[in-house]
Each structure stands twice: as C-alpha cells, then as structure tokens.
Design goal:
This protein is about 70% helix and about 0% strand. The longest helix has 25 residues. The N and C termini lie far apart (about 65 Å).
Length: about 400
C-alpha cells in the first residue's frame, strides 16, 4: 500500500511555486491539512512528485529555528517523523518492476536528500547500501553522484564509515556510483577506510588509489600496517597508473621502510612511475639526488651503515654532548635524513634550554634535515626575544619549506 500511494504520485509532477520558501510552505500546509494521522507514504507522495529541491526546503521549515509562525509543535513532530520514514518508502519502490528508470532516479534523489539532512545516523549506512543496489543499474543513475558523495560524507562525519562499511558501499554502488562513494570518503579524509578497500576484488583499485591520494593530500593518515599490506604491493602492479599512484601516496605517508622499494622503482620501465618515485623519495628524505638508482642505493647504504655503526648511539646522547663538541655532533646528524624521525625529537628537546649559540646550531641542524613536519616548531621561534635566534629560525624555516 505504501508503495502504491507513492508510486501514483510519480505520474504527475506538481507545478512549481514562485520560490523555494513558498513551495516549502505550500507542502507543509498540504501535509498538515491531512485528516488522518500522517505517515511516511503521505510525505513521500508529495516529495517524489516535486523532487529533491523540495526536501531541503521542507527540512529547513520543520527545524525548530525555522518553523513558520503559528505552527504547532505537535503537528511539526508528526511531519518530521513521517519525513524521516521517506527513504524506507523509496527503498520499497526501487524494487518495483513498474517503476521507470527516470522515476527510480527521482525516488533515489529524494531519498538521498533526506538521508543527507535527516534520519537516525545508525540507519543511514544500511539505507545508502540498499539504495545503491536498487538504483545502480538504472539509466541516469550517474546523475546521483553528487548526492551519493554528500551522504557518504555524512556517514563519515557520524563516525560510521570504517573500512568494512566503505567496502560494502563501494560494492553496492559498483561503477559509477562506487566511485562517488570513494570520492565522498576522500573528501572526509578517510585514509584508513579507503586503503582497506584495496586488493578486495572490487575492480576499482585504480580509482581507490586515486581517491586515497586525494585524501592524503588533504591531510589523511594511513596506518603503518595498511601501508605495508595494502599500498606497497601496488609499486609492482602490472598497471602503470597504479604503480604511479602508489608511489605518489607513499611520498606523503611512507616511512623509512618504503624508501628502498621506491629506490628500486626508479628502474621502472615507465617514465611516469620513475618520476613519481623520484618525487616521493625526495619528499620522504629531503634529498635532491637525481633519478639515478645507483646513486640512491649508495646513499641509502651509507645512511644505514652510519646508524648501525655509531648513529643510534650518537643521537641518543645528543643532549649530553659537551658544548665544545656540540657543533661537530650536530653537523654529523644533520645530513642523516633517512633517520630524521629519530633525530628531530632530540633536537627539539635540546632547544628548550639551549643558550642562543646552541639554539642557532640546533636550528641549523633542524633546517638541514628538511623535514616539513618541523616547520611549526621552528616557526614558533619567529617571535623569540633574541634577534639571533629569530634570524636562525627564519633561515631554518626557509629550508624546511
């Protein structure tokens, strides 16, 4: 019965109102004039006929801060409750063989508009999954892309978009809507969740890598184990684009463990992959060595040998180095950029109680490490009362940026 009522509404589209607010008031008056208790099918019948624009207007009007004067609280609660049930009506309609592709897309667009703005957070992910399955094969489904992205972002903001849920949504949407799900996740910087979708047989690994790159460019993180198990294998993918995207992502989230695989990728037959790997290496290490794999191998071996022979001990003891030997010790560690994650915390600790001369020597070492993550710490010294420290901080900041 619910489906029949709302399906009938799709046969005729209501004439447009002069303005969105006017249209919203007209809809609200129509719903509140109903004699029988209002049910989701009543609201669905109106909204499916008018389209998703009417949803945003009606949602705005039923919010407590925007209710029209003279509206009763009880009546508004009834409308609101029925409005929240519209996606369930829409999902039942999408299973109907009588629904044309155009009407199916309209039903889906209205349902998505409500999922984006209202509804219990806990049910939205499952509703979105069912909707994607119901509409993905319909002609015109691609037009729902922006709405799918927004609802996916809402699920992420609600804290309900883990890797398992994202994978279910991607599989439900297939192509192209699965791509829009991934884009919504990328906009919400869901790096871990996106990475967990790699190598899961979706057929969308290239898109997943592309959206993961987009997410990390916006500041998303990827857990170390996912870098190792999900991302790194793509450096040897048979597809050039996937190898290149993996290298670009590793340049943003990689660790010392990924440096050697990236060095080996400098021998890739694809120039695109070689250039992406070189850029990633330069970003991870701060080194400006050209794309010569042999030179990178030599540099890497020298860095590792230094750490094993004396570097680890030296870095651990930096805080107790006699002042007469401090400059030499700092010069020794400043060029060991492969281990800058271990060196930097020691240097930052030394800054706290350093004399002006010592502080300038430490700042010079920090600048030489070329780690952009250090920039905020160095920038904080730009207002230091000592002019020499301010000057040294400015020079170090220039090198870090």
């Amino acid at each position: 019965m619910i489906g029949a009522i709302a399906l009938g509404a799709l046969q005729g589209v209501g004439s447009p109102s002069p303005s969105q607010e006017g249209e919203g008031r007209e809809i609200l008056a129509q719903l509140q004039a109903a004699e029988a208790p209002l049910v989701p099918a009543d609201v669905a019948a109106v909204l499916f006929a008018r389209g998703p624009r009417a949803v945003s207007t009606l949602v705005e009007l039923v919010s407590p801060a925007k209710r029209p004067s003279g509206s009763t609280g009880e009546g508004m609660v009834e409308v609101t409750r029925a409005l929240d049930g519209v996606p369930r009506v829409g999902l039942s309609l999408l299973d109907s063989p009588k629904l044309s592709d155009g009407d199916a897309v309209r039903v889906a667009s209205v349902s998505l508009a409500i999922m984006e703005r209202r509804g219990q957070a806990a049910v939205v992910p499952a509703q979105l999954e069912d909707l994607l399955r119901g509409v993905r094969a319909r002609a015109g489904a691609a037009s729902l892309g922006q709405a799918v992205q927004r609802v996916t972002s809402r699920v992420a903001l609600d804290g309900l978009l883990d890797g398992a849920m994202l994978l279910r949504l991607v599989r439900a949407g297939e192509s192209p809507l699965g791509r829009d799900v991934l884009e919504g996740a990328a906009r919400s910087r869901m790096g871990d969740a996106i990475a967990e979708c790699l190598r899961r047989g979706t057929g969308l690994d290239g898109t997943i890598l592309n959206q993961l790159h987009r997410a990390v460019m916006q500041g998303a993180n990827v857990r170390d184990e996912l870098i190792q198990t999900s991302l790194l294998p793509f450096l040897t993918s048979p597809r050039e684009f996937e190898r290149s995207e993996a290298a670009r992502i590793l340049g943003k989230v990689g660790r010392r463990e990924e440096v050697l695989p990236l060095i080996e990728a400098l021998g890739d037959p694809s120039q695109l992959v070689r250039l992406s790997s070189l850029a990633a290496l330069q970003e991870l290490t701060g080194m400006t060595i050209a794309g010569d794999r042999h030179r990178w191998r030599l540099w890497y071996a020298d860095q590792c040998a230094w750490w094993q022979e004396d570097g680890e001990r030296l870095v651990a003891s930096l805080g107790s180095v006699p002042r007469a030997k401090l400059v030499g010790a700092l010069a020794s560690v400043a060029c060991r950029r492969l281990y800058r994650k271990e060196i930097s915390p020691q240097l930052l600790t030394m800054l706290k109680n350093a004399s002006p001369d010592e502080a300038c020597a430490v700042l010079a070492a920090l600048g030489s490490l070329r780690d952009p993550a250090l920039a905020p710490h160095v920038a904080a010294l730009g207002s230091h009362p000592n002019p020499d420290i301010r000057s040294c901080a400015a020079e170090a900041l220039r090198q870090l940026r």
